[in-house]
Amino acid sequence: MTATMNWGSIGSVRPFPLFQPEKKVSDLQAALEQKDVSTLVRILTNHSNDQRQSLAETYRSVTHQDLSVRLKTVLNGDLEVLILDLMMTPEQFEAQRLRRAMEGLGTDEETLLEILCLRSQEHLSNLAAVYTKEYQRDLENDLTSETSGDFRQLLLALLKKQQVPEDVDLDVKILCEELNNSKPDITPWIKILTMRDPDHLRSVLIHLAAERGQPVSAEIEKHFGGLFNIRLGLQTLVLSIEDPYLYLAQRIQPMKKSLVQGVLMSHCEEDLLAVRVAFKKHTGESLYSTIQDKFQGDIQQIFLALCRCED
């Protein structure tokens, strides 16, 4: 995720043209005084994250108050949570998603996999630094304490992604040999799928599927059987390599609010247009219309603003 979204990206949210932070801060002040929630939502969702950060800085300069703290006095419930999340930087928001996936009882393995599988090593390194700054905790240590066994090994390898050059045919041969073993071994899968560049991995998966005569995810399903977390981790990783936009479309298809929020906020300035295309191709319905059907009120307004338009 880059700090500055450009007009050539496939993100749905674009910078507000002719941005005047002082004028927008004046509008925000008026909306806050009048407790005009609709105007607050409209202003904050019609600007890019960089522009929202600029609004927060300008608001602090003009009023000597923290905008997020002030917003808390007007908002409540789910809307308060969504708006305060919008006021975070992208890195802060994803760090929060990781923390929430691990705190309390149980671990949200799928959210951990979503972020670790999709993000580059450089991005994850920056994210780990933000995680430490925000929570005074070490991301690697938390992953280690919250997971175990081969699944832990996979997550830690994803966190430290490397790119070691290798021959596609050799990688295919190694994975074919592993699939022929009666006792599953995740080690070669981790070594190959977390230590190659994306183009190389796509070639490996295409050739492996051709060699085995069925999709790689189906091979993993059969080979790793009852090893649920390992099977989930490898299948998620494979799909995120083969088609990350389809993976995200499938992830939000159930329309669970936290999942939709996570994907919309994390990808609206990066590649949500591609996710929208994949969603419509996969489900037969547009993401925009589906959000209209499944949500209502201010939550719907925010999600639609991030989605942006009908396909």
UniProtKB/TrEMBL annotation:
Gene3D superfamilies xrefs: Annexin (1.10.220.10)
Keywords, alphabetical: Annexin, Calcium, Calcium/phospholipid-binding, Repeat
GO cellular component: cytoplasm; nucleus; plasma membrane; vesicle membrane
Listed GO MF terms: calcium ion binding; calcium-dependent phospholipid binding; phosphatidylserine binding
This protein's record includes keyword Calcium: yes
Entry protein name: Annexin
Family of the protein in this entry: Belongs to the annexin family.
Pfam families in the cross-refs: Annexin
Domains: entry comment: A pair of annexin repeats may form one binding site for calcium and phospholipid.
